[in-house]
Specification:
Elements (H helix, E strand, L loop, with lengths): L1 H5 L3 H50 L27 H12 L6 E10 L2 E8 L2 E6 H5 L52 E7 L21 E7 L1 E10 H7 L2 H28 L4 E4 L18 H18 L9 E4 L1 H4 L17 E3 L5 E4 L2 E5 L13 E6 L5 E16 L4 E14 L5 E5 L2
Parallel strand pairs: 7-15, 8-11
Antiparallel strand pairs: 1-2, 2-3, 4-5, 6-14, 8-12, 9-10, 10-11, 12-15, 13-14
């Protein structure tokens, strides 16, 4: 994580810190609100119990128990209750303690008797309504003989709360761009990265011999901002129909579109660049798994491994050595390194590692990005099947304004126009920091 912080600009770090402080305050306020709501609910339930009890005893004073109602939940036969000869009082005690939880309504026993059949009342909406004993604890249908048929009102479908989104091809290639490049309003639309060449080697001099001066070369790498847009029109009637999930889905889909587009632009710059170094595989890649046989019989695996090692070595040596740190390839090409052979792994397989999700993580000291938009293993001869870069100088991503959302209500159309605008530039920089591996 420390490395990630070091790669962030001061503005990005300040924004991250601000967001963390905001999240902390939101969490604290949520805890306070939850505590307050819990206390209010408990107070309401306690008041409701007392109100119902007072109303019942006011209407039926004969229900006053002869002694304090016990605090246990033991069920007693009302006809043989030793605490009180009245079966109604016994039932009241029993039912009250068995139903101590109240929400919007509660049920209580009444004194009313119809022959041998005890009746009950339900307390609902501030009133007592009678219903038979069987209606409370029995399993018979309450509307027998007068069933209502609501099939014409029953929805044909029920939507789950979860909403799936269509997957888009992303790999967060922004992290391999040269860091710290941005343009502020009023700075124009172009940015230049200045570069200077290496100084010559020192030369030996005789006694009193004067020095001869040398110079260095100065160059620049230029990028120019362009503006980009996404727009959607959302009808208010449609929002009324399906709910706020419609607007949320549009915004999430637009965000995914930006992420996928950023990655495609960066990869395109790297693939179409004239690389400083090109390594051609000794064999055309075979995309069929080969998980058996003796060591080193998978020619595609060994050829691709050798090509990566040769390319890295070429970029690291010479008068202008680079420090390649990333390898970008498609999942189908990365799968070649997952074809472990028997009877034992190849001796150099310790140089290849995978993450917990099975993705290629590291090889030849390079961090690996499996990008779904990279050229596949089955691509034709001459295609780039892997790209090695020195991320300090290979590709630039300049933002004047990251995607910004504007929401405008069009009253004459009863709709919302959602626009997202960004000022950004992508471009190859030092092509010597880019290396290609191609199919023969």
């Amino acid at each position: 994580m420390t490395e990630e912080y070091e790669n962030m600009s001061l503005e990005e770090l300040q924004e991250l810190k601000k967001n963390r402080e905001k999240d902390k305050i939101i969490a604290e306020l949520k805890v306070e609100d939850d505590t307050k709501a819990k206390k209010e609910k408990e107070a309401y339930e306690n008041q409701l119990r007392e109100t119902i009890k007072e109303e019942l005893l006011k209407e039926h004073p004969e229900w006053q128990p002869s002694e304090k109602i016990p605090d246990n939940k033991t069920e007693k036969n009302p006809d043989t209750n030793a605490d009180d000869k009245s079966p109604v009082v016994a039932l009241y005690k029993q039912y009250y303690h068995l139903n101590s939880e109240f929400e919007s309504k509660s049920q209580y026993v009444t004194k009313t008797e119809d022959g041998k059949k005890t009746r009950f009342q339900i307390y609902e909406d501030g009133q007592f309504k009678e219903c038979g004993l069987d209606g409370l604890w029995g399993n018979t249908d309450s509307d027998t003989g007068c069933e209502d048929v609501v099939s014409s009102w029953s929805p044909a479908d029920t939507y789950a709360k979860i909403v799936w989104e269509t997957f888009v091809c992303t790999a967060d290639l922004l992290k391999i761009c040269v860091k710290g490049i941005s343009i502020n309003p009023g700075d124009g639309l172009g940015v230049q990265i200045r570069a200077f060449g290496a100084f010559g080697s020192p030369s030996a001099k005789n006694a009193c011999e004067c020095a001869s001066c040398a110079s260095i070369t100065f160059t620049t790498y230029s990028l120019t901002l362009a503006q980009y847009n996404l727009e959607a029109i959302i009808c208010d009637k449609d929002i009324w129909d399906v709910g706020s999930i419609l607007m949320e889905s549009y915004l999430k889909s637009m965000a995914n579109s930006w992420a996928a587009w950023f990655d495609s632009q960066i990869y395109s710059e790297l693939e179409t660049a004239t690389p400083g170094t090109t390594e051609t595989s000794s064999v055309t890649m075979s995309c069929s798994p080969s998980i058996s046989g003796s060591c080193c019989t998978d020619s595609s695996l060994t050829a691709l491994y050798n090509a990566i090692q040769n390319l890295v070595a070429s970029m690291r040596e010479g008068t202008a050595p680079y420090n390649p740190d990333y390898l970008i390839l498609s999942p189908s090409v990365a799968a070649i390194f997952k074809r472990m052979q028997t009877p034992s792994p190849m001796p150099w397989m310790g140089d290849v590692s995978f993450d917990a999700d099975g993705r290629l993580k590291k090889i030849a000291g390079l961090k690996v990005i499996e990008y779904c938009g990279a050229n596949a293993c089955t691509d034709t001869a001459g295609e780039v099947i892997a790209i090695v870069i020195d991320s300090r100088r290979a590709v630039g991503c300049v933002f004047g304004q990251k995607p910004k959302t504007y929401k405008f209500f069009q009253s004459n159309c009863n709709s919302y126009r959602i626009d997202q605008w960004a000022y950004v530039a992508f471009g190859e920089l030092d092509t010597n920091a880019i290396g290609h591996i191609v199919n023969p």
